[in-house]
Amino acid sequence: MQQKKFLQLYGPMFAVIWVGAFIVLVTVKQKGLDLPTFWGDILIEKAGLTLYLPFTSASAFGAFAVAFYEMWRFMKRF
């Protein structure tokens, strides 16, 4: 598959899922649920304040959702 067609097909879906996962992960972390951080995530805990920016975790959610969607779409044929 050509790169341009691939990005046109899956880019918007990945972007929407990435933004949604980013918001959910930041919200859940602020509510007190202890989430593991991955390489690329930023976690700063200082004087009772927490800053969590889950770049890699949100990307993992996006990639998983896009792959799962494509698998579901492929399996619908059978």
DSSP strand count: 2
Rg over CA atoms, rounded to whole Å, is 16 Å
Arrangement of strands in the largest sheet: 1-2
Residue-averaged pLDDT, rounded?
86
Q: Count up the helices.
A: 2
Largest sheet: 2 strands, antiparallel
Name the beta content range.
5-15%
Distance between the ends? 23 Å
Order of helices and strands: HEEH
What's the overall geometry? elongated
Model regions low in confidence, pLDDT < 50 over at least 5 residues = none
Class of secondary structure makeup? alpha+beta
What is the share of helical residues?
55-70%
Helix-strand blueprint:
Blueprint lengths: L2 H28 L11 E5 L2 E5 L1 H21 L3
Antiparallel strand pairs: 1-2
Helix pairs in contact: 1-2
